[in-house]
Design a protein that fits this description.
Blueprint: E1 2-8, E2 11-19, E3 27-30, E4 52-57, H1 74-87, E5 93-99, H2 100-111, E6 116-124, H3 133-142, H4 150-162, H5 168-179, H6 185-197, H7 200-207, E7 217-222, H8 230-239, E8 244-248, H9 255-258, H10 260-271
Parallel strand pairs: 3-4, 3-5, 5-6, 6-7, 7-8
Antiparallel strand pairs: 1-2, 2-4
Helix pairs in contact: 1-2, 3-4, 4-5
């Protein structure tokens, strides 16, 4: 496993590659808000052999560059993923997205369908059932940043994220890692950009085109997700032709961390459909 930076039109994305170049198609893993490629750490070693695995830090997250004036829409993130695939010589791939990354995956498969062989949407944003209540509160506080310290906004978000884990010790370790890039003055400004960019209007527009998705699709959901309810997962699976729905028992929102084996197995099953 190796991590590298790649320059895409003046902005560096961090990614790491694993697995092998075999007969199976490559798999690209996309994280959500406000996480990073670290989300997939325990899933990657469990993936079947013969696939090139690429784990991305989306722009402004993890080790990737701050966005500066670049767009943070779902479609813009998706276009950068396609550019990364081009740079890595990957013409088509299975796209796996969690949370906001699932929205990016939807934008990618709808706007660049020829680049997607299969699609896995894990506890994904969709329709209008997001952002969460506490994220909406943080956005309200954002408008008062002249009076409210940004660290208060991060504290609210931290408490919200903890509700998405079953394993409290894992939650503490991962959330510290996810939020670390946002704790400096410059990082807090980037975090505010991400908050401003969260827009359910994008997934509302994409929802009208979910019926166009031809790639075999698996929708995978934590049974007790407190942010994006299982009802949303059922609705998403029902909107995509031929999509399957797998419910992972006993877990909440961060299924790739709390239940890596079921997630890896579900993706493996998708890869042979």
């Amino acid at each position: 496993m190796r991590g590298e930076f790649i320059d895409l039109d003046g902005a560096r994305l961090y990614y790491y590659a694993a697995g092998t170049r075999g007969a199976g198609e490559p798999v690209v893993f996309l994280h959500g808000f406000p996480t990073s490629g670290h989300l997939w750490t325990d899933v990657i070693p469990l993936m079947p052999a013969g696939h090139r695995l690429v784990v991305v830090d989306l722009l402004g997250y993890g080790r990737s560059d701050p966005p500066q004036a670049r767009s943070l829409t779902l479609r813009a993130h998706g276009e950068r993923v396609v550019a990364l695939m081009d740079a890595l010589g990957i013409h088509r791939a299975c796209i796996v997205g969690h949370d906001l990354g699932g929205g990016v995956a939807q934008a990618l498969v709808i706007h660049a369908p020829a680049r997607v062989t299969r699609l896995a949407l894990i506890d994904s944003v969709a329709f209008t059932g997001w952002p969460t209540r506490d994220v909406r509160l943080a956005r309200t506080l954002l408008r008062l940043t002249g009076k409210v310290p940004p660290k208060w906004v991060l504290a609210i978000l931290r408490a919200d994220l903890e509700r998405g884990y079953v394993d409290a010790s894992r939650a503490m370790h991962s959330i510290d890692r996810f939020l670390r890039p946002f704790t400096s003055d410059d990082g807090r400004a980037v975090f505010m950009q991400h908050l401003r960019a969260l827009d359910a209007g994008e997934t509302r527009a994409l929802a009208q085109r979910l019926g166009e998705i031809a790639a075999p699709t698996a929708v995978i959901w934590g049974a007790h997700d407190p942010f994006l309810s299982l009802r949303l997962g059922r609705r998403l699976a029902g909107a995509i032709p031929g999509a399957t729905l797998e419910v992972v028992p006993g877990v909440k929102h961060f299924t790739p961390e709390d239940a890596p084996r079921p997630i890896a197995d579900a993706i493996a099953a998708l890869l042979v459909r």
